[in-house]
Amino acid sequence: MTTLLIVDDHPLQRMGFRMLVESQPDLAVLGEADNGADAVRKAAELGPDVVLMDVRMPGMDGIEATRRILAAGGRSRVLVLTTFDLDEYAYAALRAGASGFLVKDARPEDLLSGIRVVAAGDAVVAPQLTRRLLDRFADQFPVEGEAGNGDAGARIDGLTEREREVLTAIGRGWNNTEIAERFHLAESTVKTHVGRVLAKIGARDRVQAVIVAYNTGLVSPEGRN
What we know:
Blueprint (H helix, E strand, L loop, with lengths): L1 E6 L3 H12 L4 E7 L2 H11 L3 E5 L7 H10 L5 E6 L4 H9 L4 E4 L4 H12 L7 H11 L11 H8 L4 H11 L4 H8 L3 H15 L4 H10 L10
Parallel strand pairs: 1-2, 1-3, 3-4, 4-5
Helix pairs in contact: 2-3, 3-4, 4-6, 8-10, 8-11, 9-10
């Protein structure tokens, strides 16, 4: 069972998310919060697997709340939801450590899928959004645990040739199915390679792996396709 905390300052929005989530047998809502400060407190108290986080709220916004929740070192992962499909919001959310970014008018099945993906330890950001973000902001993204790009470069030196190819593919925004088709591999094999790549480069999820791919020059804006 995947547990959630729903954070939004609009009661009707929270109700809609709750109804959608509770229609699924594998998902459960532990609580709700209507502002960032309350979200930080309840995330610490309840320890949900996933926090559905609004961005614009009175007082502490969702970006700062995301930063504080993750800095506390708990197991909760954050999926940011906003009505604003703007690169700056996605950039701020991912910088704060969010594992995903979706707009609120996403299809219900996409939101449910995103929750499950984030709960499983991966990231959910549409490839086209990832590309736009990194074309614009790649040199500004910090890599978790890295003092600079040189350290990240040292980490990719430990990758096998296949793992380097997989990291490059991740950097281009390819999903596991696309990687499997390109390299004639089973998807289960791709998942194994992705897991090893993330572990070796110290990346929390695919978003950070994309950042490493850009920061080390494996992928460039001009050569992303």
